[in-house]
Specification:
It is built from 10 helices and 16 strands. The chain is of the alpha/beta class and 311 residues long.
Amino acid sequence: MRVISQRRFGGPEVLEVMEAARPVPGAGEVLVRVHAAGVNPADRLARCGEAPVFGDPPFTLGLDVSGVVAETGADVTLYRPGDEVFAMVPGGGYAEYVTVRADALAPKPASVDHVHAAAAPRACLTAWQALVGLGRVGPGHRVLIHAAAGGVGHIAVQLAKVQGAYVIATARTELHGFLRDLGVDEPLDHTRTDFALTVRHVDIALDLVGGDYGPRSLATLRPGGLLVPAVLTGLGVTPEEAAARAARLRPVVVRPSGTTLGKAAALMAAGRLRPHVSAVLPLEEAGKAHEIAAAGPTQGRIVLTVQPVWT
């Protein structure tokens, strides 16, 4: 099979089309023929060595996939060949085939194509585990979401609205129309307005940026409010600093969950969660996809499509 791998850390140019042996599913695993793979910020950080997501090269990037079950391992009873599925995987998604633990899979909604399904897994799981799992977001809560037009952010906005929250979102002015279409109540341009000086009485702040966004977000929280960073680097704030501002700090480390992804899939099927895809490129142009992502903030996800040449 073809994969996109790299032999060293570096820019998008290190991504190469290579041949690899098709994996064999073990007990409790499923072999998925990948139709589409999402491009995540974590992929780019791993590619250049800024975040140890996959360890040292060589490795194959890719955390989000949508495709069709090709083979099942022992003890797998929920899926069989031909089933359309999507999942967050621990790497290896930029490939024609990938093995996935059966409990990380969820059936792909029939009304959602593979491209849009591939844009969803990590974003849905991050948003769900942050807002529902840690934040217990519900009706009347005021939620602040940073980088709200991005891959995780635009899903988090929709999930917060499904939960009945009032959503304040940071993004550039040109993205405010997109955010309002998703249900944002109060969009803010972080390049023109300092949210740390103007936003108050927030119940949950979701930090998808890192750096100084964490400590600055503490100023927006009500007493007892919760800051949930969902970043790989640059947390920027400690539990002690949060406690000194009468706030709580609960970082989220996203984990695969077919059960949670299944709940998100039901919302997607009902049209209440709509993954947005900003660009679609073939697998062979993974490097170009990374270049586009690095050029500036994108709306939603960039997705790679996979057309097998071997069967």
